[in-house]
Write a structure and sequence with these properties.
By secondary structure, the protein is of the alpha+beta class.
Amino acid sequence: MDNPWFIDPFHITLRLALAVLMGGLIGFEREANSHPAGLRTHILVCLGATLIMLLSMYGFSDFAKLDNVRLDPARLAAQVISGIGFLGAGTILYTGKSITGLTTAASLWVVAAIGLATGAGFYFAAGLACLFALISLFVLNIAEKKYLRAKKPRHFKLEAADTPGLLSRISALLVKGGHEIQKLSVEELSCDEGSLIAIDMTLRLAKGAKLAQIVDEPQHIEGVRSVASD
């Protein structure tokens, strides 16, 4: 019977190489979409998780020969699942209006799990999880952009001169374009050049609306100085 506490150099190399490949595939999608944790981060997380799994399973094989010693291959691996949360938290940003980075944090967590499965020699499950993760990130991202992105409310911030009727003109322009104003707030700004206001608006965009056009049109209204969208 083969020794369950021994692994040869070939299989060590194979598992680490697969970790680089699968972590890189998921990281490439994040990198291509300009997310904070990209190709190198995902590769390193998957590679590190694989190495920790290998260490947990085979790194203490000499102690298996001793009496009254029981090895737990999952002990080190279990710490990866909780420890990866610190790295994932660093990709989550709260801007005051929305939270971003949750998908990237989840992808790091999945990559760590793929690395652990690869290190344990659970190749089929690791490969299948990698495939499903790529489908979720790449294919569903395309579908979301095409069918769901327009239905999500978008936040806009306008800076303008405090003139009578300005809000009415801006609102009329947006409503004419088929957009729905869900939230609106106005804040006075101190400026040497005169009285200015900051207008925060949350819009549900009309179907087929282009963001660039929505940002550009209000700037043609007299008094509007700048328009920005999150």
